Amino acid sequence: MEIPIIFMLVITLSVVVMAAVQVAAVVYGVRLVKRVNRMVDQIEKEIKPALDRVNDATGDVTRATSLAVAQLERVDQLFGQLTERVEHLMTVGQDAVVEPLRKGVAVLAGLKAAVTALRDVSNRMSTQTEDSVGEDQEALFIG
């Protein structure tokens, strides 16, 4: 045989082998895609209940969060009212106790000042009386 014919046979044989390999790769690829599709379907079937439970749990968490927010708002309102009432109570306490106590202290301070003034006047009068009695007695003393 001639060399060009041998080369043609080799080229033809290699093209046939390459075509067979490509057909085998395509067939294997189709089988692989079918297998992956079955696996995805199976995973979806197995995961669906878990996803449903996650969705239910998310709904429960959302409800619990909204309830917690509502309770916190109530607590905030309660503390606001409590603060107002304590401030009112302190104002009433100041008006009912502190102001009369201040007035009482002022009255006591006035009484103390009056008693001190009376003592001073009394002491001055007794000093003047003793001085005048002493002068009268000196005048009566013969000596």
Short account of what is shown:
The protein is an all-alpha fold and about 140 residues long. It has 1 helix and no strands. The model has no long low-confidence stretch (mean pLDDT about 85).
| Alpha carbon gyration radius | 58 Å
The proportion of residues forming helix, as a percent range, comes to over 70%
Q: DSSP strand (E) fraction?
A: under 5%
Instruction: Tell me the total number of β-strands.
Output: 0
Global shape: rod-shaped
Beginning-to-end CA distance, first to last residue: 191 Å
**Chain-averaged pLDDT:** 86
Overall description:
It is a single chain. With 143 residues, this protein is mainly alpha-helical. 97% of the residues lie in helices and 0% in strands. The chain is built from 1 helix and no strands. The longest helix has 138 residues. The termini are far apart.
